[in-house]
Amino acid sequence: MNIITSTMRLFILMSVVFTCFSGQAGAQRLKSGPQDLSFFSSVDDTDQPYSVYIPENFDESKSYPLVVFLHGAWSNHRLGMRRLFGVGNAQGYDFIKPGNVAFENDVEASRYWPPFRPVDYIAAAPLARGTAGYQGIPEQDVYDMIDDLKARFHIDEDRVYLTGLSMGGGGTLWLGLTRPDVWAAIAPVCPAPPEGTMELAGNASNLPVHLFIGDKDFLFQTATEWKVKLGVTAMRLDYVEYPGVGHNSWEWAYKDGFIFDWFSQFKRDLYPGKVSFTTKWFKYNSAYWVTIDDMIPGKTATAEAKFTGPNSVAVTVTGINAFTLRLDGHPQFSPSKKVSVTVNGKTFSIRSADAVSFLLSEGNWVNTRFTPGLTSKQKGAEGPLYAAVAGSHIYVYGTADNPPADVLAARRAQAMAAADWTGMGGRIMVFPRVVADRDVRSSDFVSSNLILFGTRETNSVIEKFADKLPMHLDPKAENYGLVYIFPMNRHYILVNSGLPWWTPPKGKTAQAGLAFSGTNVEILKKYQDFILFKETPDYIITQGSFDNNWKLPADAAEALKGVATIKLN
138 preceded by cis ω (within 30°)? Predict the structure, then answer.
């Protein structure tokens, strides 16, 4: 594990050196074949490496399809590129036991590029912070890498494909289903998807999917469940099951460049006749020609919209308060004629040149565009707790009460523990700052989310925003833990007063059953916008989501009124 982590650090350093010498060179200055590039990440002011394949006889004026590959746990971008092209670890002479046949380990295989089968694609594989899954910061890295590629090359945006193995296969399902209109097709190999991904399976209604699994794989049951689900929901499902194969089905799935041939059949259709879309987050509020403008916090929103004829659309929605149909460009829409739109059984006849919007008002749908208020939940200001660590963020401990040295050291240690992204694969390549409240810079308030430890009495940053924050914990309530997220300056403040959110359940020394990213960070995924517990998360007094105006729901406010340690604003 330490060897792999050290190698990843070396990759980052090499990538920075390469970038400095190349001066972020244009495509025409790069050689054909596999190589390493990097992009600058505003998350932690680092250059993040990725591997890219450039076709032979590259023509800078030509538009190329793009294949994005997501590597598995304990792997990296260079190994990922090799796996994509079906080039495994080389077989050679065993110097430890002469006469035996040995395979090079992953570190050895990461040091060089073997010959690749030529394909007329650009292919790219991000490091994505190592073994961190593909949600939050690693997820953003994928899209930042794609943006960097678009700046360097002519990418055919209707032929962008996504594939990956194991952890990366799960990432393929997650990224593919949360933003299905980005991809022309996806191919998850022995996938280990994040929790909650299955609920989004209906989003594959316009997405071809190729699923690969070995019948001896420990993820075989998961894959068969996906096979059944996608067999109903996906536009097209191709499924291959390898007899006697364990958790290495990628050796067959990517053999001889098969995946490039399979992807070549498909182009993205931005204007399908029918759109089925499910989401829980404003972050993922749009698919094809349907945009969800307002939804119920903490609930699942579903929209199904289809053309029933020229200028005739039928829409069924649940968990949605407002939505927009962007019709301009659809082959069944003519702006010169009225469009008939039926919403949950109510029909409207509307003249529009581009888009039509609907709002639920007092239980009735009306043809009105939703305009969010300044304090409304919306994209970038919706929570939940995990959103605070899904982008640029700083961990801040309190010094406002001039604590003695031992107390100050304990507070700093708590913030350092929160900032430790160590996970299953060792140190994850995320490097947030940890600072005292007195050292928070003016620019930090407008550039980063702030993870604030302490109370308004002990942390001057919490006190700075105290009148705007929804609640406060009595600093004497040492056996309570209060954690909540709140929007501020177009970013988030996450307040953790009292016991830290990663306090182990009673009788346990650590949280169990966590996935790939840093242990303490991963725990935040379990909760919505706020949680108050006593002694351990075994005893939760209240938890849930703020309403669409960032107010406590009535039941939570009532529960907190009976807690003497909490003061509500």
Answer: no
Characterize the bridge pairing of strands 185-189 and 155-165.
parallel
Residue 501, phi then psi, degrees to nearest 5: -65, -20
Q: What is the pLDDT of residue 15?
A: 46
Q: Which residue has the tokens 């390549």?
A: 429
Name residue 104's amino acid: E
| Torsion angle of the four alpha carbons 130, 134, 140, 144, in this order, in degrees rounded to the nearest 10 | 60
Q: Give the C-alpha separation, 405 to 212, whole Å.
A: 56
Q: pLDDT tens digit string along 384-430?
A: 999 999 999 999 999 999 999 999 999 999 999 999 988 766 668 89
pLDDT at position 90: 83
- CA dist., res. 243 & res. 333, Å (int): 48
CB 159 within 8 A of CB 184: yes
Q: How far apart are CA 444 and CA 447, in angstroms?
A: 5
Q: How far apart are CA 150 and CA 153, in angstroms?
A: 5
Q: In terms of C-beta density within 10 A (0-12 exposed, 13-18 middle, 19 or more buried), how is residue 176 classed? A: buried
**Cα R_g (the chain), whole angstroms:** 25
Cβ-count burial of 97 within 10 angstroms (0-12 exposed, 13-18 middle, 19+ buried)? exposed
Query: Phi-psi region for residue 29, left (φ > 0), alpha (ψ -120 to 50) or beta?
Result: alpha
3-class SS at 509? coil
Distances (CA, A) of 3 to 74, 108, 315, 355: 11, 11, 54, 55
Give the three-class secondary structure for 463: helix
- To the question of pTM greater than 0.85 for the whole model, the response is yes
Q: Which helix (H) or strand (E) holds 421?
A: none
CA-CA distance, 524 to 119, in Å (whole number)?
42
Q: Which residues of the chain have pLDDT under 50?
A: 1-28, 511-514
